[in-house]
Write a structure and sequence with these properties.
With 155 residues, this protein is an alpha+beta fold. The protein contains 4 helices and 9 strands.
């Protein structure tokens, strides 16, 4: 973790990079939140400077709105976003910089998702919120969508 104050999950997904990228970019609402939470995509403009805006809803009426911008988008390989800005580069209280990477590993994909925090306090809070369990569940859900898309593509 060190100076980056980074939390991360990594897994080998049993689907090719193309299917993982389609799951990430086209089926976001199906995998983003650990169930029973759901995701509503307001906007996902996957380009540097593009807006990311989602609403996560919990089973007891909880609602968490997230808005930020994409800093880097390398189609099929890597996405970096932050909530330090709203669309139009309007500063807001930051929580993290998120990075998602997809690397080919034979017919499978080495997936890595990480969150870097501005302060140790926010990193510790994210860990206490269940980062590892939540982001691991999300990775499993992403894999299930990618495997489905891969099997549909071969059918």
């Amino acid at each position: 973790m060190g100076e980056t104050r980074e939390l991360s999950v990594e897994r080998l997904i049993d689907a090719p990079v193309e299917a993982c990228w389609r799951a990430f970019s086209e089926h976001f609402e199906e995998w983003w939140c650990p169930r029973p939470w759901t995701t509503e995509v307001i906007e996902q403009d996957l380009r540097p400077g593009g807006r990311t805006a989602i609403v996560m809803r919990g089973p007891n009426g909880e609602e968490q709105r997230l808005e930020g911008v994409f800093l880097e988008v390398v189609p099929g390989r890597r996405v970096v976003s932050t909530d330090a800005f709203r669309f139009g580069w309007i500063p807001q209280a930051p929580f993290m910089v998120g990075t998602w990477s997809f690397e080919p590993d034979g017919a499978r994909t080495r997936y890595r998702a990480s969150a870097r925090h501005w302060t140790q306090e926010s990193c510790d809070a994210h860990r206490a919120m269940g980062f590892e369990q939540g982001w691991s569940a999300v990775a499993e859900q992403l894999e299930a969508v990618a495997r489905r898309l891969d099997s549909e593509g071969r059918a």
